[in-house]
Write a structure and sequence with these properties.
With 274 residues, this protein is α/β, with parallel strands linked by helices. The chain has ten helices and 13 strands. The strands form two sheets. The chain has a seven-stranded mixed β-sheet with strand order 1-2-3-4-5-6-7. The chain has a six-stranded mixed β-sheet with strand order 8-9-10-11-12-13.
């Protein structure tokens, strides 16, 4: 059953980037930060071309961080405003337009928030559109240009993001209240893919999904590096760790290391990768 779902997802994900049909998780949840009289609240919203954006905040200090902005964050903005949150950080898991193109409008509301991403993916944003035109099938490019959501992606100007405040390499830590966010460099889907671990959660971007992994037929992607990155998560995180991906529903490290259709703890399937 997991393989069947992963096969379907491997088709839906690239289409979702064009058609905006990707399902995702939504809602709010809280958990206690270990060793601290605080709780981490997580709000997720599907936006833009089916991208999962996440708001993390301390219920005690009201400090907050946002991970990925693929479109208008109406629900997340409502939570920020009603709870009076202080947005300290905006983190990008990678620089593909479906994860960053909502940033300019959002950032205008929070000019003091620090923006963080990997330098490699920032640089690749400026050649991303040309790479797609020159390397992807013509029908893919035409579908992108002809669909309203896809056209927004295609026309997005990375210059509108400006220069990030913080360059990430992996191993950095940031705090929101008593909750420590740890960065993990996980190349594969892109050369600068980053995951963000906090308490018993990891936000995996397009590296690891429920039942499958991110595509590796894109600019500066690598299936070999992706396998190493995914297995690094399998080896270094407890099985109960909840994985919040860039598209689709959440999963756990334990489920993926045993049942993922493309990369498990001891097997990988090149023919199932994209």
């Amino acid at each position: 059953m997991r393989y069947a779902f992963a096969t379907i997802l491997s088709v839906i994900v690239p289409l979702a980037l064009v058609l905006g049909l990707m399902p995702g998780c939504g809602g709010e949840e809280e958990q206690a930060a270990k060793g601290y009289d605080d709780k981490l609240a997580i709000v997720s919203q599907v936006n833009g071309p089916g991208t999962n954006s996440y708001l993390l905040f301390s219920t005690k200090t009201k400090e907050a961080a946002v991970i990925d902005i693929g479109g208008e964050l109406t629900e997340i903005l409502n939570v920020i405003q009603t709870k009076g949150l202080d947005v300290k950080y905006i983190f990008f898991t990678h620089g593909h337009f479906d994860h960053v193109m909502g940033y300019p409008a959002f950032a205008a509301l929070f000019p003091n928030a620090k923006v963080a991403m990997h330098r490699g993916d920032y640089e690749d944003m400026f050649t991303q559109r040309d790479w797609i035109v020159n390397n992807m099938p013509p029908e893919f490019v035409e579908r992108l240009r002809s669909n309203p959501t896809g056209k927004i992606m295609y026309d997005f100007e990375p210059e509108s993001i400006g220069r990030p405040d913080l360059w990430l390499e992996g191993g950095e830590t940031f705090q929101i209240g008593g909750n420590v966010i740890r960065t993990v460099h996980t190349p594969g889907h892109s050369r600068g893919s980053m995951c963000y671990q906090v308490n018993d959660r990891i936000f995996s971007g397009d590296l690891l999904f429920d039942g499958t992994v991110g595509r590796t037929d894109l600019q500066n992607s690598s299936f070999e590096e992706l396998v190493v990155s995914v297995r690094g998560l399998y080896h270094n995180l407890p099985d109960a760790t909840i994985v919040h991906p860039g598209h689709g529903p959440s999963t756990t490290i334990g489920a993926e290391k045993e049942e993922n259709a493309v990369v498990t703890i001891d097997t990988f399937y090149v023919d199932r990768a994209r």
